[in-house]
Write a structure and sequence with these properties.
Blueprint lengths: L3 E7 L15 E8 L3 E8 L9 E2 L6 E3 L5 H8 L4 H4 L4 E7 L6 H5 L12 H17 L11 E10 L2 E4 L5 E7 L5 E9 L5 E5 L3 E3 L2 H12 L4 E2 L7 E2 L2 E9 L1 H35 E3 L5 E3 L7 H31 L8 E6 L9 H6 L7 H25 L11 H10 L7 E9 L6 H22 L7
Parallel strand pairs: 1-5, 1-19, 6-18, 6-19
Antiparallel strand pairs: 2-3, 3-4, 7-8, 7-12, 7-15, 8-9, 9-10, 10-11, 13-14, 15-18, 16-17
GO molecular function, one term: hydrolase activity
Protein name: Kinesin-like protein
Family: Belongs to the TRAFAC class myosin-kinesin ATPase superfamily. Kinesin family.
Length: 463
């Protein structure tokens, strides 16, 4: 399994909390000197709690304090692996934690003007943009090989995806014939009869300002709602993809979509003709069996003609896909196609935890909110099982367990890169009223970290 690191980030206490609510957990951090430097953490429950003390394994790459800002986290977590992206590899960053623990603040940030407070996504885009500017400066004027950043933003809710850069367009998550997962929008019927199914929109950004404006516009469309913690919690998994692109790459991918659009009606006609001929060519007997129709001879030539036309258009699609590979091979930039995937996971929910229910000031969750919470928890459990199965090199990886893991499959197993890297950032609250939620967050990360093992989290691979 490619390298996998687990980090913990403690959220600072909010100044608006009451004296009772602001009681902090007793948090101990143990530094372990082994072949690699890892940390363990332990929690002492509040005096009024019946919970027992708990201590993690030595699995954390680093533990960030409440006083550490986003730049500190970026410098330690993301910046060291950017050379991987500049070699064309895919790197994933997942933020996991209960509602209100600081996931969105870490991944996305709320200050888009001051670099020290940028979320990991925008801070990474800023550093990559500077590298691309230097590379573009060496190109001849007017070159078509100018590098830019492609931004994709979508959210997963239940079994659907919603394109945040394309008017919150509803998209379907499907597994293709090649075993890969595809996210496609609604089917569009063109004036000439062609049928087009658009993928998630890629917004080409040739400057950091363009990317920043696209990020802000997309975030305004993200769904929020009440959770067990507060009333404006992220109720979806947000996925932000940053890819190094050129115009030639985007045009080649658009050509694939166009060829696929041309294939759809041709393939449908071939299927219709096959079914039509076979329905005429067979009749059903009284005992329910199908036998050749003596009054009709199947027109095999008609079927063969339609299949030949379908094969012709499939060849066009294949050539368009091959051209995408040619663009990669012809580029003088090894960074082309390098990706950063940031996933702001929806807040984990614990509706049956009495300590949370007692401390929450909001009304009991509605049946709809409970269904959403159960779906979120199902996604998060599936994610853990996928990571563990990959770490243990099991023959079957349960990607199909949830839409979230189906979507992340392409990032965990990138087809166009030689390696990948994944980091999970656990966000936790030190408030005593959030002991149960914090405990569950740390236990989740502990299970993932133990499963991945030291070999999967080799620090030498982060050079």
């Amino acid at each position: 399994m490619p390298p996998f690191d687990v980090f913990t980030r403690w959220r600072p206490l909010l100044p608006t909390k009451t004296e009772t609510e602001s009681q902090t957990l007793e948090i101990n951090r143990v530094h372990t000197n082994q072949s690699q430097t890892r940390y363990s953490t332990s929690l002492m429950p509040p005096p009024s709690s019946r919970d027992r003390p708990w201590r993690s394994d030595a699995i954390f790459t680093r533990i960030f304090e409440g006083t550490d800002n986003n730049k500190t986290v970026f410098d330690a977590v993301v910046s060291p692996i950017l050379p991987r992206v500049l070699k064309g590899q895919t790197c994933n960053f997942l933020a996991y934690g209960h509602s209100g623990s600081g996931k969105s603040h870490t991944i996305i940030g709320y200050d888009f003007e001051h670099p020290n407070e940028f979320g990991l996504c925008l801070a990474a885009a800023r550093e990559i943009s500077e590298e691309l500017e230097r590379a573009n400066g060496e190109l001849p004027r007017g070159s078509e090989d100018v590098l830019g950043i492609g931004l994709r933003m979508y959210e997963l809710r239940g079994n659907m995806a919603f394109d945040l850069l394309n008017e919150h367009c509803r998209c379907h998550i499907r597994e293709g014939y090649d075993g890969q997962t595809y996210i496609r929008g609604e089917t569009e019927v063109m004036d000439d009869g062609r049928v087009r199914v658009r993928p998630i929109m890629t917004r080409a950004c040739w400057s950091l300002d363009e990317l920043r404006s696209g990020l802000v516009a997309g975030l305004e469309r993200r769904a929020t709602g009440p959770s067990t913690i507060h009333d404006q919690s992220s109720r979806t998994h947000a996925v932000l993809e940053i890819e190094i692109i050129t115009r030639a790459l985007l045009e080649a991918r658009d050509a694939v979509v166009e060829r696929q659009s041309e294939l759809v009606p041709v393939a449908k006609r071939a299927t219709d003709i096959y079914l039509e001929e076979n329905m005429k060519g067979f009749v059903r007997t009284e005992d329910g069996k199908f036998v050749p129709n003596p009054e009709y001879q199947i027109d095999q030539a008609r079927i063969d003609e339609a299949e030949a036309k379908k094969a012709e258009f499939e060849c066009y699609v294949q050539k368009a896909e091959e051209h995408v590979d040619i663009v990669f091979k012809a580029s003088q930039h090894p960074c082309l196609g390098g990706k950063l995937i940031f996933v702001d996971l929806a807040g984990s929910e614990y509706y049956h935890d009495k300590s949370i229910s007692a401390s929450a000031s909001r009304a009991n969750p509605t049946p709809q909110e409970q269904r959403e919470g159960r779906q979120i928890n199902t996604d998060l459990l599936a994610l853990k099982e996928v990571i563990r199965a990959r770490a243990l090199k099991q023959s079957r990886i349960p990607y199909r367990s949830s839409p979230l893991t189906m979507v992340l499959r392409g990032h965990f197993e990138p087809s166009t890169t030689t390696a990948s890297y994944t980091a999970m950032i656990l966000t936790a609250s030190p408030e005593s009223t959030q002991f149960a939620a914090t405990m569950n967050t740390l236990k989740y990360g502990n299970l993932v970290g133990v499963a991945c093992g030291d070999k999967a989290r080799s620090s030498s691979s982060r050079k």
